[in-house]
Design goal:
- The chain has two domains: 5-25 and 236-311, Cation efflux protein, cytoplasmic domain (Alpha-Beta Plaits), CATH 3.30.70.1350; 35-232, Up-down Bundle (Alpha-lytic protease prodomain-like), CATH 1.20.1510.
- It contains eight helices and six strands; from the N terminus they run E-E-E-H-H-H-H-H-H-H-E-E-H-E.
- The protein has helices spanning 26-64, 67-93, 108-136, 143-165, 171-200, 205-232, 242-251, 285-300, and strands at residues 5-6, 9-10, 21-23, 255-267, 270-279, 302-311.
- Strand 1 and strand 2 form a beta hairpin.
- Helix 1 runs antiparallel to helix 4 (143-165).
Length: 315
């Protein structure tokens, strides 16, 4: 058996194309649909909680004259927008395939993750800018209202984080989670800053802690953006080795060689594969198809498979 490689694809001499087979497992798809429905409801509740608290925080900040609370309310609004966008993307992704979109609209979640990543970069930039301004010109803060609201904000984001952690962990939900974790850390920072300001009156602690939170958010945000772009560029998933899958396919009895092997991500948790398999005889195709299907699903979790069998031509 042989496995060649040419211009980024596994390749041997390509004979005339014969038959193609597409494999898809409905039971797994049904389970995936149920998970996505649960994800939609969870993200909707997180969105509502966040939006309501953002209004409360803004009103409290205006009443107490706390710029820190008003600023954090702005961050909560961005979180609410993120969760709203994520919820809409999951809902759109549940729509069935159509003539125009044969795979459905599940990639909407990846696009939402990309947009959320850009939104996160905007929020991080705003935090850094505001922190630098406050270090240069300290702003008086009424510590007690900040402590109270930051404490409740920390509890709210802990609940949101717990709900999101129980969902299907795709790019979209991870991007939403980064928003929530970032706001949780922001609430912790605001709480610590409020306590320190209340006891000591040292104002620079607030912007210093804000910069620490921004640095933590930046690391996760860059990872989300990188992964989203990788998926949109049809990159091979990090959890799968193209060469390893090719070797396993070529090792199946009845397959002489493999070429034009491609593996990509359709949506979160949904991998697809296409390949040309060169066989000694088409008589072995039913047995080869069954073994290939079993190996790809069991070893790599690949459910959407398109295979092109070809008869080997004697050299």
């Amino acid at each position: 058996m042989s496995l060649g490689h040419h211009h980024g694809h596994f390749h041997v001499k390509r004979p005339k194309l014969r038959h193609a087979a597409h494999l898809h497992h409905d039971p797994a798809g049904h389970s995936h649909h149920k998970e996505r429905s649960h994800t939609t409801r969870t993200m909707l509740w997180a969105f509502l909680f966040t939006a309501v608290f953002a209004v409360v925080e803004a009103l409290t900040g205006w009443w107490s004259g706390s710029l820190a609370l008003i600023s954090d309310a702005g961050h909560m609004v961005s979180d609410a927008l993120s969760l709203g966008l994520g919820t809409f993307a999951v809902w759109i992704g549940n729509r069935p395939p159509t003539q125009r979109h044969s795979y459905g609209l599940q990639r909407a979640e990846v696009i939402a993750a990309l947009l959320n990543g850009v939104l996160l970069l905007t929020v991080i930039s705003a935090i850094v800018y505001e922190a630098i301004m406050r270090i240069k010109t300290p702003t008086p803060v009424n510590g007690l209202p900040v402590i109270i609201v930051a404490f409740f904000g920390m509890l709210l984001n802990a609940v949101n984080g717990w709900m999101l952690s129980r969902m299907e962990q795709g790019l979209n939900t991870r991007a939403a989670m980064i928003h929530v974790i970032g706001d949780f850390l922001g609430s912790v920072a605001a709480l610590l800053a409020g306590i320190i300001v209340w006891w000591t009156g040292w104002m620079p602690i607030d912007p210093i802690l804000s910069l620490v939170v921004a640095a933590l958010m930046l690391y996760s945000t860059v990872r989300i953006l990188t992964e989203a772009i990788h998926v949109l560029m049809e990159g091979v998933p990090d959890t799968v080795s193209l060469h390893e899958v090719g070797e396993k396919l070529a090792a199946i009895q009845g397959i002489h060689s493999v070429h034009d092997l491609h593996i990509w991500t359709l949506a979160s948790g949904m991998l697809a594969l296409s390949a040309h398999l060169e066989l000694d005889s088409l008589d072995s195709w039913p047995r080869v198809l069954e073994r290939t299907q079993s190996m790809l699903n069991a070893d790599h979790g690949i459910e959407h498979v398109t295979l092109q069998p070809e008869v080997r031509h004697p050299v």
